[in-house]
Structure formats: structure tokens, C-alpha cells
Amino acid sequence: MTALQLQSQTTSKPNEFCITADLLIPGRGKPIHNACIIVKDTKITHVGPADDVLAHYSELPKTHVKVLMPGMWDCHVHLVGIHKIASDAFVQAHQSPVLSGARTARDCMLLLNAGFTSVREMAGYGIQLAEAIDEGSLVGPSIYSSNCIISPTGGHADIHTLHRPWFDDACAHGMPMALADGVPECLKVVRSQLRAGAKVIKICGSGGVGSELDNPIDQQFSDEEMKVMVEEAARARRVIGAHCHGKPGIMAALHAGVKTIEHGSYIDEEAADLMVEKGAILVATRTIIEIGLKLGKGILNPRGWEKMQTTAKAHWEALQIAIKKGVTLATGCDIPGSIPGSSIFTYGVNGQELHWLEKAGLSPLKAIEAATANGPLTLGPQAPKTGQLKEGFDADFIAVDENPLEDLKILADAEHVTHVWKLGTLYKSPRRPISSL
Ligand SMILES: [Zn+2]
User: Which segments cross the bilayer (predicted)?
Assistant: First the structure.
């Protein structure tokens, strides 16, 4: 029986059950030993020590697991089905949306299989994929998408190697990128994303590594352009996430009121202090940088490889500074697709971001918080009530077969994820792995 069939069987009567765990990691706060969680339909109705509550719920179906924790969040994905690393990383994004969608269907399955019950998509086909997942046509996480990435002409999300009319034509046919220059166009482009169903707005605050001609250190949108986009998004209760490597773009984005800094490669002490003061969140995406370092040599052109190495070095220092200064972190990998057969450039290993955060100085418990409770914060007022094992929260949680507080690397290996529940429905168990669906 598939998870979807199981779901349709259980929708007719209240779905109430109990899970006991040797260890429960709540997402925020202290772990509980010998814990119990009660779920009714899509919500968590009780969390606590098993001894206190089991007697009241003796009639409920029970499952015992080793370690229970919230379903993880990847706060920076691109569901676009890109299959290779390139100096102009967006160049494949103009492939047919049908091909992208077909490739991405498997990526969605890999995410859920690896324990990721939610993703924030920072440009891609997530809005359409979310519709297919929510109606039951596809298996995957809950997706909160920005729709397009918004860039100034010549900026990080302009495809410099394409003739402009080709670029415009690809955008008109669904490629998830948009260009805007000047205040009126910036207002209009934000409204266009809202019209498409965006839950968050993604802009380019600086140049990039995977874009041919720009410099990661340079600021892109002007202070004024960023400010009006933040204000326009806020009127619709959306926040902005800004792609920012260089410090000028980071500072301008923070002063404009941007909620999340993506990458943050040149954060120094002053920038980290401003992030803390503004309550901004860093989505560092160390994973894609490590992938670039592993696979980029000889594939990227000399300028792209040079940018990759320089940015990677600065980024590692910046991440350590941000952690030391107490900047709020949320995990995000920036993976744009899965190369068949690759164990490096693929969805399903997204949990490795936690390992990188730990290596840069974050405690394992805080790294798990970055991958669970902090995920929804990156959506501001659009945040769903999930990411924590807490009464009244969505029943999105996973079980793992070893204690991740002793070895975070297990969260990067789907084999260790024994169970996945999303909105109270069991999608994966040892008897019924998702990959058999
Ligand atoms: Zn990205």
C-alpha cells in the first residue's frame, strides 16, 4: 500500500496515535528521555515524559522509536532539475519546465525520504510542485517558494551568456527569474511574485559565484530599490531573502529590512552585530560551496574557479564569526538538482549542512534547532506552525536510529531516517521505505 492510499484510508476517521521514544529532541529546548507524543489528525496534541501520559492513552495505536525529532527544513533549495555544475549556473534553468519538473519529482521524494518535511525554495518550480504534492500526485515535503529570483539587469540572476531576447523569452515561458531596474519595476516585480503565489521574495543583494560576469563582492540592487521591495513585500506580510556575498550588499540589505541573508560570505564582526540587532537570519548554504570545491576544478572556467575558491575561504571565516556573535542560523543547502549516480551533487544529503555548522562552531543541539525550529522563522509572518515537537504544532516529525547529538552526520544519511510523518501521515517506516513507492 502506498502512503497516498494509506492517507485516503485514514482521512475518513480521526487519526489519533501515540509514539514513544527513547529520546525526544523537541527542536527548541532540552531533549526528553523516555518521551511520548500524541497526534490527532494533522496536529500534535501532547508532548512529554511517557510515564506521565501513557495511562490516559492506553487505547491508542502505538509506535516505538529510538529518537524522535521534528521534520527538518532546508531553507534554500532550487527545484529546477539542474544536472551539472557550470560557470553560469543558471544556464540550464532555461531548459523545458517539463524536463525540470520530471527531474524534480524525484528530488522531492529524496527530500522527504531524507527527513526533510519542509523546504523554502529560493527560486524554482516549487509553486507548481507544491500543488502536485498537496493534492497527492507527488510525494514530497511542504514547499514554500519565492517563485522567481529577482535581479537587476546584468546581475546574479541574469544569464549573461544568453542573448537578452532569449532570456526574456525563457522568462515568459516559466523560467523562474525576473529582472527589474529602478523603483517602479522593483515594485511591479514583487507584485508579480505575489500574483504567482510566492510565500517569500528572493532578491540579489550582491553579485554571485555561479554567474558569469559579476563580482560576488559588489552590491547589486541599490539601497532605494531594496527598500521599496522590502516595503512592498511587507504589505503582503512577506519577508525578503537576499542573495548576498559581499559586505556592501549585506549591510544595504540589512538596513533595508531584509529578513534573511543567503550565503553571507563576507560577514565580518560589524555585519554580524547588525544581523543580531536587526533579528536577521543567516542561511549560510555551506553545502553548495563544498560541492563547488569538490567538483568545480576543470569544469568551471578559470574565472569561475577563482571566484569559487576566494569566496569559499571568506565564507568559512564569515560563518565562524556569525556563530561566535550569536547570529540566528537556519540550514539551507542551495542544491539545484541531482546528477544521477552522484552522491555529492544530489538531493537527499541535505542534512550535511548541520555537520558544516557544527564544524564552524555551533553545538549539535543548536545545529538541530537551525534545521528545525528556525526554519519557519525564515518566512516571517508566513511561517507555518511546524519545526518543533510542541502542542498545537503540525505533526511533521521523523525518527532516527541513532542519537544525532552524538553524531550529526547520521542526519545526512537517509538510511538512518527510519520514519517520516508529514501532517500526521506516515510516509516512511522500516517496513515501507519511500523509495519503494
Ligand atoms: Zn541559491
Answer: none
CA of 427 to the centre of ligand 1 (A): 28
The C-alpha atoms of residue 114 and residue 108 are separated, in whole angstroms, by: 10
CA of 336 to the centre of ligand 1 (A): 8
Please give the domain boundaries of the chain with CATH numbers for all domains: 3-71+387-436 (2.30.40.10), 72-382 (3.20.20.140)
Cβ-count burial 80-90 (b if 16+ within 10 Å, e if not): bbbbebbbbbb
Report whether 119 contacts 239 (CB < 8 A): no
Q: What is the DSSP letter of 394?
A: B
pLDDT score at 92: 74
pLDDT at 435: 67
The arithmetic mean of pLDDT across residues 208-221, rounded, is 92
The pLDDT assigned to 436 comes to 45
Catalytic residues: 202, 334
- Residue 55 to residues 18, 23, 47, 387, 433, Cα–Cα distance (Å): 12, 19, 14, 27, 31
Structure confidence by residue, pLDDT tens digits, 102-151 = 999 999 999 999 999 999 999 999 999 999 999 999 999 999 999 999 99
Neighbours of ion ligand 1 (CB under 5 A): 334
Residue 254, Cα to own-chain centre: how many angstroms? 20
CB 98 within 8 A of CB 162: no
Q: Which of 259, 238, 236, 261 is nearest to 248 (CA)?
A: 261
